[in-house]
């Protein structure tokens, strides 16, 4: 593979440190540094940015991010076997890479961002472990206060999850995730990554999703929005008068000005917010 930074090829790094991929940790590594640079570039300008990366593993994406001139990169990795390999990258880019060993689901990212003292934008970039990816995304989408601590998120998902994130009422993948992401961010699928780009290859195609927070999302309480989307999509084939019955049914729908005969999958984000605000 083309060298982007004078460090050894990732295949050698993995072999030298005995980093055989573990399924339980969602480990599917990217070894092509041109591809990892393409992912990092999708995040936007990195020169003044502080980047937070989840799950650096042997460091393919980490190296790409650093090679693009990022000021500071904070990486959170759960697998302690990866730390010596990451320390080599840190030595190569003195003072720019901080590695935190731990479970990203337990990290207070807003606090981490505060402590970093970053003056430029904070960008989240990750080839996420699939088993925790959606939960992390939901945590970041429900950040409080809003606008959040980050300027963008550039994340790898299984394609099917990516489709759900960017979906709206005009397509079949629309559901709770699409409402949440559409309400608070502008989300787009950047490009697909085939299974064979990973070691080992996963069963399905992956996709890189780029999300930027909206400055002024429609005012709406998250808890209320979650209640209405949970009820409505919990019975997505039913008419709303049935699916949101426990929340007030026809009275609630009349207050929100929404036809009780419609189904969840036909409601726009704006209409879901109206429903939530009528609770
Ligand atoms: N970024 C590397 C790449 O692109 O080749 C590795 C990506 S691999 C899909 C996911 C990485 O996340 C693994 O290194 C795994 O050990 C790490 N990981 C899994 N669960 C984690 C968690 N809860 N918190 C932090 N890292 C985690």
TrEMBL record:
Gene Ontology CC terms, in alphabetical order: cytosol
Catalytic activity: adenosine(1518)/adenosine(1519) in 16S rRNA + 4 S-adenosyl-L-methionine = N(6)-dimethyladenosine(1518)/N(6)-dimethyladenosine(1519) in 16S rRNA + 4 S-adenosyl-L-homocysteine + 4 H(+)
InterPro entries: KsgA/Erm, rRNA_Ade_diMease-like_C, rRNA_Ade_Mease_Trfase_CS, rRNA_Ade_methylase_Trfase_N, rRNA_adenine_dimethylase, SAM-dependent_MTases_sf
Principal EC category: transferase
Residues where S-adenosyl-L-methionine binds: 28, 30, 55, 77, 103, 127
Location of the protein in the cell: Cytoplasm
E.C. number: 2.1.1.182
Domain Ribosomal RNA adenine methylase transferase N-terminal: from-to ranges: 35-215
Gene3D superfamilies: Ribosomal RNA adenine dimethylase-like, domain 2, Vaccinia Virus protein VP39
Keyword annotations of the record: Cytoplasm, Methyltransferase, RNA-binding, rRNA processing, S-adenosyl-L-methionine, Transferase
GO MF, any single term: 16S rRNA (adenine(1518)-N(6)/adenine(1519)-N(6))-dimethyltransferase activity
Family that this chain belongs to: Belongs to the class I-like SAM-binding methyltransferase superfamily. rRNA adenine N(6)-methyltransferase family. RsmA subfamily.
Main function: Specifically dimethylates two adjacent adenosines (A1518 and A1519) in the loop of a conserved hairpin near the 3'-end of 16S rRNA in the 30S particle. May play a critical role in biogenesis of 30S subunits.
Full protein name: Ribosomal RNA small subunit methyltransferase A
Organism from which the protein derives: Rhizobium quercicola
Gene encoding the protein: rsmA
């Amino acid at each position: 593979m083309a060298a982007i930074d004078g460090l050894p090829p990732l295949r050698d790094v993995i072999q030298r440190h005995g980093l055989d991929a573990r399924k339980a940790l969602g480990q599917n590594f990217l070894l092509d540094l041109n591809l990892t640079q393409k992912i990092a570039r999708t995040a936007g300008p990195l020169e003044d940015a502080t980047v937070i990366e989840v799950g650096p593993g042997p460091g393919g994406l980490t190296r790409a991010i650093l090679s693009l001139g990022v000021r500071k990169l904070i990486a959170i990795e759960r697998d302690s076997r990866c730390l010596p390999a990451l320390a080599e990258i840190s030595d190569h880019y003195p003072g720019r890479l901080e590695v935190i060993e731990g479970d990203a689901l337990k990290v207070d990212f807003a606090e981490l961002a505060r402590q970093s003292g970053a003056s430029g934008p904070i960008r989240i970039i990750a080839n996420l472990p699939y088993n925790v990816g959606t939960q992390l995304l939901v945590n970041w989408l429900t950040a409080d206060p809003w606008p959040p601590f980050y300027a963008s998120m550039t994340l790898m998902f299984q394609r099917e999850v990516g489709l759900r994130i960017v979906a709206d009422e005009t397509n079949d993948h629309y559901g709770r995730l699409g409402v949440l992401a559409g309400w608070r961010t502008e989300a787009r699928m950047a490009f697909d990554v085939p299974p064979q780009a990973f070691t080992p290859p996963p069963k399905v195609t992956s996709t890189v999703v780029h999300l930027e927070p909206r400055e002024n999302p429609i005012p709406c309480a998250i808890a209320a929005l979650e209640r209405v989307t949970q009820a409505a999509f919990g019975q997505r084939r039913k008419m709303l008068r049935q699916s949101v019955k426990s929340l007030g049914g026809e009275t609630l729908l009349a207050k929100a000005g929404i036809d009780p005969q419609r189904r969840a999958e036909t409601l726009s984000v704006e209409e879901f917010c109206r429903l939530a605000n009528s609770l």
